[in-house]
Give the backbone structure.
Amino acid sequence: MRFENLKPYFPWITLVALVLLVGAFNPSFLSLSSMVSLVADIVPLFIMALGMTFAIYIGGIDLSMQQVANLVTVVATVYLMQFGVFVGLICVAAGFLIGAASGWITTRQFVPSFVATLAMGFIALSGARFLSGERALSMNAEARDASFAWMFGNTGGVPHEMVIAGVLLALAWFLQTRTTFGRALKAVGSGELAAISSGLNVDRIKILAFALSGTFAAIAGLMFSVKLSGGDANLANGFLILAIVAVLVGGTPLTGGVGGVINTLVGTLIVVVIRSAMVYLEIDATMQQMVFGVILIVAIALTIDRSKMRIVK
């Protein structure tokens, strides 16, 4: 069987192999309670990676997500007492607008997505620092419980954050596979010039893709804030590279048009199992970042579509 035929199954094979490997070192890892706890802990990362999938699926990237999540933690903490549960809508709207602005800059001002989103990330970071006074903020416990206690409850042994993640995954999957918008995303990722020739409004599709990316980042930031009961301009730091790795190792290449949100689910599980393995093996935290850097390079090398990068002479 050719390498290209096996390629779509690599993420699943990798996930199973890693789970068995970690289970060999620590049999308790394979218990149901351990698995549920592990998955529940990475829900904010998974939601952020879901949003990143839309940006990468069209051949772009969103480097603002981490700072959008940081800004939302501060906004949620500062305005919770004033707006109650409706602060969640403000947070989601902020993420949507920042993402849409990134898409507009990319499409209408012809700025590469990594530059546009990086710049919007700096703007979001400045906003978070201004609102927080450059200090960590604590969320009012009573107001938090009154508005968002439902986020982290438990029903029948199933954590509510897993239910939220499942609903968002189903929504993202429906958008990707069962709507005209989803088919347009794939067309843009597969070949932008061909999509334009077929009459698609590529600019609008790209703006909406980045808006979705910002929206999911905002939801992740809100969950960070509620779970940790506070806000900080640095609270979500370190999650950007993990979200990118999750999307890429899941099989959605930077060149776009292939993969999708189910692949991102597998990729996120791979990331969390690797993190668990490094903890069990007592790998230093600094070395862990190096490991993920190597994984990122390998993931890009294995998934990227080189045919889109050939220079036509």
In short: Residues 202-228 form the longest helix (27 residues). The beta strands are 137-138, 154-155, 158-159, 230-231. The mean pLDDT is 90.
